[in-house]
Amino acid sequence: MKRVLAAFAVALALALLLVGCGEKKELTTGSAGITQRFTLMLDWFPNADHAGIYEALADGEFAKAGLDVQVQVPSDPATPLKLLAAGKIDAAISYEPEVLLARNQGLALVSVAAVVQEPLTAIVSIGSKHITSPAKLRGKRVGDAGIGYQHAYLSTILAHAGVPAGSVSEINVGANLVPAMLSGRVDATLGAFWNYEAIQLAMLKKRPNVIHMEQVGVPNYDELVVVVRKDTIVNHPDLVRRFVQALGRGYETVRSDPQAAVANLVRASPDLDPKLQLASVRATLGAFFPSNPSNPWGWQDPQQWTAYGQWMLSHHLISTPNAVLDASTNELLAGQGL
């Protein structure tokens, strides 16, 4: 593993020598009278994390960019990146770890913008369990969705806190994270989002405790990202650029008027609870934008991607450094590019 990481470091250094930077004045509107169809698949059902997408649709930002954006909802959250790689859709909303796993399988996919700039996945528990730190997981039952990297998150957190892994029972509860906590089947979950399930629990007066993973040993990563095929960037960079920058303007509008943005989201998906969505959007506003205000919306920290990729390599979640090299790019964001 040390040799793999060393090779990764050398390859990364060579790659960085080839990366240029500088501002680019870009055409972010489409050709007059020409509208291109662009299909975007979400990672899961429409929710507050996608508020900027529906805002850009409602405000006509995509239309101004010459795009007829069609949003699709997956029947299975495991399929968007597979459909993207197969050329069935133009872009997908996914997660940084899923992008690296897909690239490790040889899929030529690249993340072109971060929608949520930090992990939303957290350790969540109802207040009566008094789990306020990883040390208090000793002897407890922790539910997750049975995802490999979630198991690695838990192992990393426990090791960081000095808690024997054998003292914690890990239970696969699938997508039933909140019901598993409410029923007492588990004492906590790793996989619930602090901006969604934790808010649901708060609305139920369950006084949830939230432990943010990046604060207890797991490397920081971008929870939600926009992913396209590498060949789309090579052959149609302006198409991706127009989409990404119109999407960024949608999220800027969300920041300026969250309530109106939620109204557009709920109008598009009437089954959503407006109160929950508004609380979630407001909780997530800071995470929609880079911590450094001089960076444009969608910015992805190359060093963060490297550190997270090294963590995946060290936990045998991916096997090749090539999965990490050039996995993300900022070249299509506002003001970026050669």
List its traits.
338 residues; alpha/beta; D-Maltodextrin-Binding Protein, domain 2; 2 domains; five-stranded mixed sheet; 10 strands; 39% helix; 16% strand; globular
Explain the overall architecture.
- With 338 residues, the protein is of the alpha/beta class.
- It has 2 domains: 2-117 and 222-323, D-Maltodextrin-Binding Protein, domain 2, CATH 3.40.190; 121-215, D-Maltodextrin-Binding Protein, domain 2.
- 39% of the residues lie in helices and 16% in strands.
- It has 13 helices and 10 strands.
- The strands form 2 sheets. A 5-stranded mixed β-sheet has the order 2-1-3-10-4, with helices on both faces. Strands 7-6-8-5-9 form a 5-stranded mixed β-sheet, with helices on both faces.
- The longest helix has 20 residues, at 237-256.
- The chain is globular, with a radius of gyration of 20 Å.
- The two termini are 35 Å apart.
